[in-house]
Amino acid sequence: HLGENAKVTIRNARKEANDHIKKLQKEGLSEDIAKDAEDEVQKMTDSYSAEVDKHLDRKEKEIMTV
């Protein structure tokens, strides 16, 4: 299912970003900056997931009206 694949890709990107943030934190990145970065990653994840849902809903409505 294309929509679920997109969401898995988004979640994988979030995990990679958070792993990178944790690595930077071990190298000296402050906890405050790391937390802000993780929050921003989550906002982006939520935004992209919502876009996927929106497109899936629109496509489903198109299919149902045919």
Domains, number:
1
The string of secondary-structure elements, in order, is: HH
Low-confidence stretches: none
Q: How many strands, what sense, and barrel or not for the largest sheet?
A: none
Radius of gyration: 16 Å
- Binned strand content: under 5%
Helix proportion range: over 70%
Roughly how many Å apart are the termini? 20 Å
Mean pLDDT: 95
Number of separate strands: 0
What would your notes on this structure say?
- By secondary structure, the chain is mainly alpha-helical.
- It has one domain.
- It has two helices and no strands.
- It has helices spanning 2-26, 31-65.
- Helix 1 packs antiparallel against helix 2 (31-65).
- The protein is elongated and about 55 Å long.
- The relative contact order is 0.13.
- The model has no long low-confidence stretch (mean pLDDT 95).
Write out key terms for the chains shown.
66 residues; mainly alpha
Would you spell out the secondary-structure blueprint of this structure?
Layout: H1 2-26, H2 31-65
Short characterization:
By secondary structure, this protein is mainly alpha-helical.
